[in-house]
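C-alpha cells please, single chain.
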Amino acid sequence: MRPLLDVALDELALFVPEPRAGVERVDVDDQGAVHLTHVGREGTRWFTFDDRGLLERHPKDDDALPIARRLQGGETIFTYRPGRRVVVEQRTRGERRIAKGYRRKRSREALRRHQVAEGASRRGGFRIARLLVHHRDEEALVFEPIEGHPLWLDGEGVEGCFRLGKALAHFQTTYVGDALDVFGPEQELAVLERWREKAERALGGPPQGWLAARDRVREVAGELPEPRIGLVHRDFHDGQCIETPDGIALLDFDQLARGDVALDPANFLAHLSLRGMQGESGADESSAHACGEALLAGLDRQDEEGFWIRLRFYEATTFLRLALLYSLRPRWAEHAPTLLRLGERCLDDLVRIG
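Here you go.
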C-alpha cells in the first residue's frame, strides 16, 4: 500500500506544477487528513487530502475559525493551519495590524499566555508585540506589527546570537508563579509520540532507526539531573526572532510554559544545525556552529549544575522530532536521516558526560 503522503502529492500534481518542490509544510490531523501548504508562482495555496480526495482550502471559507466571517479573501495570509489557526494582516484606514484567529474556545488560553509573555518582557530582554484587542466573538487576538528583519545566521550573525542568548536568560528567569503548567521530559516524550503517529499515518512509519533512538531517549529521561525551572517558549528557533531597532523581538507564545531552562536553547541549537544543512538565513555548517557557541555564551549557564546533560537531552529530543517533521516535507526529506544521526550523537554525548 502506497504511503498516504505520496498519494496526496500525486493528487496535488493536478493542481500545481512540481508539487514536491513547492510543498513547504505538511501536517496530519487526528482523523488522518493530510494538510499541505504549497508555495509557487501563484503564491501560497492550502490543500487537504482525506477520504473525499484533495480539496483546496482558504481561511475565509473555514467554518472552524470564527474569524473567517471577517475575511474577504484579499488579505495577506502569513500562516494558515486548516481548522486550527490563521495569522493575517489587516489594514484599516491605512493602519496595519496582525490578527491571529483560533478555533472556538482557544483564544482565551492564547490571551493568557501572551499576557504572561508581555509581563516577562517588562524585565528587559525580548521585545514582544503589543496586544491591541481580544475579539472574543471572533476568537482572535490583534497585535501591533513588528518592523524588522529575520535573524541572520552567517558569520555576521554571531553577535546577534550572543544578544539573543542574553535576552533568553532574562526571559527565563521571570517569576510567573503557577500561572502556567510545567512542561518536562514526560511531556516532551508525548510530543515525540504525537509526531510518530503523524509519520505513521502519512508515511507508514518513522525513518529507519528512529524507534531505537526514541527508546534510548526514554531510558535517559528517567535519569536526568533535577531541572532548573523557568519560563520556556517551547518553539524557540530563528524563525520566531526578528531584529528590530529596539532589540530582538520574540513571536508566538501559544506553547508558553514553565520548564527546564535547557529546553529553549537546545531547540535553537538543533535548528541551527538544520539551517546549516539547508543553507537558509545565510547559514552554513561553520556559521551555525559559531552562532550556537555565541548563544550559549550569552545565556551564560555553562557552570550551572547538570546543565550540559539536560541540554543534550533536549537537543536529542528536538533532533528526533525534526527528523519526523522533515521526513514529511518532500523538499527537505533527504535531511531526515542526518537529523536522526545528530540526535543519536547527542545521546552518545549523554553517556560520556554522565
